[in-house]
Specification:
Blueprint (H helix, E strand, L loop, with lengths): L1 E4 L1 E2 L4 E8 L3 H5 L7 H29 L2 H15 L1 H12 L5 H17 L4 H22 L13 E5 L4 H6 L5 E6 L7 H9 L3 E3 L11 E5 L4 E4 L3 H21 L16 E6 L5 H6 L4 E6 L13 H14 L4 E5 L27 H6 L1 H14 L6 E4 L5 H21 L7 E6 L2 H5 L1 H5 L4 E4 L1 H8 L18 H16 L4 E3 L10 H6 L4 E4 L1 H13 L5
Parallel strand pairs: 3-4, 4-5, 5-6, 9-10, 9-16, 10-11, 11-12, 12-13, 13-14, 14-15, 15-16
Antiparallel strand pairs: 1-8, 2-6, 3-7, 7-8
Helix pairs in contact: 2-3, 2-6, 3-6, 4-5, 5-6, 11-13, 13-14
Bound molecules: phosphoenolpyruvate (PEP) and magnesium ion.
Length: 541
């Protein structure tokens, strides 16, 4: 047995087999081909290799499992040899001068998007097969073996050098028990995604590819990973996991009860979600609504920016699914660590201080207006709160409000119905907290993003693992800015919520309630433990 330690994002535990994940993004590389003929030869060789691999997998599965399971690989062979798919890749290489990797990825991605948008659940599910086939070709091009994650049917612990937020969001699988990575910081978006999924994640682990396929235990509390644990340790952790399940079941008893302190102070509890799939978890824990819907995660894995119709459908669905609950959708917070291929963001020396969130939206209003019109149209179907990230000035808020008016005129001209969303901003920069009185006159609510507020107040990159021990959300400067924001909000009679990770920090709950927070918004898994703490607090003692 080996024990390694790292940094942990939560106290969760997991026991399972490690699966090593190789990045597709590392395989794709540059888009433009120096020699298209050579790329075509490479593609044809990879195609051949993939066809042979699938034939072998078919034979092996037929022998060891059943014809039904073997058929999956036969279907993948058919997808791979589909003339249109094949032709589109070759055309992209020869006529558009693309590298083999880029051509495979872009053609595969487009096809995948078409399938997952289909109504028929059977056809929709074929999207995953297209991704499998695309990944197989990419790995064949790289000369490496296929990703260890393909065709996994058992629950697993995912191990990787690093994971981007877009890769993590794609992993929202019922089979995923936890993450182990070498890179990454516990305050990154990847860590936040893992929290929303309710699984443990260890970072700064000196990972070893050899562990692929080995049994391991993640102890989030001790921030350690046991590889090849003995039976006694597995049993000990299984007991701990079982008592965790019991504790969670116990907490279900307070699901319908209000979040109210012993001395009668009531606070609203909302959930933070990143994808429509997370809504279910929010409902399950009795969230009074969604305090933060990070809309950018809907767009991260796409090749093209989703059009107004598609966005409208998604937002409307969120409102309908949450039937009358409080909903706050945050507009695109792309840039920094969240990059979409269609935005073609250039590398920056200081991405967290760079082209990000409303800076992109205000600089590229045509892109922003698509989202705004979609949100306005969705607001015709129920009360919708819309909030804007990374605000530092009044000028930005006014520019956004002007754009909203332009969007309303455009919708009116087209005869499309729209509603009037309730508008708010995130207070996640020291500048915004310091001018909160002025900002409060312009908007209907504030939501405090403590993750970025800490990053910008402490001058500390939240994604940089080397400095994360200096990242201190309890720093008095941050708590002072939070208090100032709450006071400014209440002076102007608007509600204020905390939607950053500090909202789930039970050692800060009493302080936040004393500051008169109207609501706290946390990952679904963190909601009931938070409610329990609130119900035990007495503010007067
Ligand atoms: C925050 O910054 O606290 C926040 C909630 O937004 P995000 O973590 O998505 O940047
Ligand atoms: Mg933020």
């Amino acid at each position: 047995m080996r024990t390694v330690t790292g940094q942990s994002i939560s106290s969760e535990l997991a026991i399972g087999t490690i699966r090593f994940y190789r990045h597709i993004k590392n395989i794709i590389g540059s888009a433009v081909a120096a020699n298209p003929n050579m790329e075509l030869t490479r593609y044809r060789a990879a195609y051949q290799t993939s066809m042979e691999q699938l034939q072998n997998l078919y034979n092996k599965t037929l022998e060891q499992l059943s014809p039904a399971e073997a058929d999956i690989f036969e279907m993948h062979r058919m997808l791979l040899s589909d003339n249109r798919f094949h032709h589109a890749i070759e055309t992209s290489i020869i006529e558009e001068n693309k590298t083999a990797e880029y051509a495979v990825y872009s053609v595969g991605q487009k096809l995948w998007e078409r399938f997952i948008a289909m109504e028929d659940p059977y056809l929709q599910a074929r999207g995953a097969d297209i991704q499998d086939v695309m990944n197989r070709l990419l790995f064949a091009l790289s000369g490496k073996t296929e990703s260890a994650l393909d065709h996994i049917t058992e629950p697993f612990i995912l191990m990787a050098e690093d994971l981007t937020p877009s890769e993590t969001v794609q992993m929202n699988s019922s089979k995923l028990l936890g993450f182990v990575t070498r890179q990454g910081s516990p305050y990154s978006h990847t860590a936040i995604l893992a929290k929303t999924m309710g699984v443990p994640a260890l970072m700064s682990i000196d990972i070893d590819e050899e562990w692929d396929g080995h049994l391991a235990i993640i102890d989030g509390e001790k921030a350690c990973l046991y590889i090849d644990p003995d039976d006694a340790l597995v049993q000990k952790y299984q007991l701990k996991i079982n008592s965790g399940i019991k504790r969670r079941e116990e907490l279900q008893k307070i699901k319908e009860l209000p979040a109210v302190t012993q001395d009668g102070r009531r606070v609203k509890l909302f959930a933070n979600v990143n994808t429509p799939a997370d809504l279910e978890a929010a409902v399950e824990v009795g969230a009074e609504g969604i305090g933060l819907f990070r809309s950018e995660f809907l767009y991260l894995n796409k090749n093209e920016y989703p059009d107004e119709e598609m966005q409208y459908g998604i937002y409307r669905n969120v409102l309908e699914k949450m039937s009358g609950r409080h909903i706050v959708i945050r507009t695109l917070d792309l840039g920094s660590d969240k990059k979409s291929p269609y935005l073609a963001l250039e590398p920056e020396d200081n991405p967290a201080l760079g082209y990000r969130a409303v800076r992109i939206c205000l600089n590229q209003p045509e892109l922003f207006k698509v989202q705004l019109r979609a949100l306005l149209r969705a607001a015709a179907h129920g009360e919708l709160h819309v909030m804007f990230p990374m605000i530092v000035s009044l000028r930005e808020v006014r520019a956004i409000k002007d754009l909203i008016e332009v969007c309303k005129e455009e919708l009116q001209k087209k005869g499309l119905p729209y509603g009037n969303p309730i508008l708010g901003i995130m207070i996640e920069t020291p500048a915004a907290a310091l001018i909160a009185d002025d900002l409060a006159k312009e908007v209907d609510f504030f939501s405090i993003g403590t993750n970025d507020l800490a990053q910008y107040t402490l001058a500390l990159d939240r994604n940089n693992a080397r400095v994360h021990t200096f990242y201190d959300p309890h720093h008095p400067a941050i708590l002072t800015l939070i208090r100032m924001t709450a006071e400014a909000a209440h002076r102007h009679h608007i509600p204020v919520c905390i939607c950053g990770e500090s909202g789930a920090d039970l050692t800060l709950t009493k302080a936040f309630l004393s500051m008169d927070m109207d609501a706290l918004s946390v990952a679904p898994n963190a909601l009931l433990p938070l409610k329990k703490t609130i119900r035990e607090i007495s503010l007067s003692v």
